Amino acid sequence: MTSSAHRRWRRRRWSKVDARSATASASRPACPPEWIPIGIYTIPEISTVGLDERQTIERHGGVLVGRASFAELARGQIAAIPDGLLKLVTGPDGRRLLGVQIIGEGAAELVHLGQVALLAGWDVDAFVDGIFNFPTLAEGYRVAALDIVKQRGERARIAA
Q: For the whole model, what pTM was predicted?
């Protein structure tokens, strides 16, 4: 194929790809603004996606919050970064993930796992059942989810 023929072929190919991309994005519903992650590159980093506790109480009538301190995580201990916190926010039933807030080193990178979970409609149990590399700060998602599962069990015992 000559170079000019190759260029024409590439232009046609990419115009088809662009057309498919435009069609696919036009057919998808818009992402709620709160599902767009926010990262503040301070020391320590702060990042959030989804609803916080106040918004969850206003919209869902209650909240369960799971917390994981970086000091409890093996990676936090190995890297000497104990000053960090990952929070998972759910409704009062403690099932559906509604928000993630993180403060500490790498917060702006860690928040994207929470964003994917929100977009996919995951329950917090997905973090309990999932397998995380060890030791990583992402393991905080599992620790925070286990905290919520514990709170659900306590609420069930009280209600019974």
A: 0.79
**Residue indicated by tokens 């917090």:** 124
Q: Which residue matches tokens 């409609």?
A: 121
Query: Would you tell me the crossing angle of helices 107-120 and 139-159 to the nearest 10 degrees?
Result: 50
Cis peptide before 44 (omega within 30 of 0): yes
Burial class from Cβ neighbours inside 10 Å (0-12, 13-18, 19+) for residue 81 reads middle
Tallying the residues shown for the chain, one arrives at: 160
Q: Are residues 66 and 24 in the same domain?
A: no
User: Is the CB of residue 49 less than 8 Å from the CB of residue 38?
Assistant: yes
147 and 68 in contact (C-beta within 8 Å)? yes
Per-residue pLDDT reduced to its tens digit, 28-75: 667 788 889 999 999 999 999 999 999 999 999 999 999 999 999 999
CATH number of domain containing 95 = 3.30.390.30
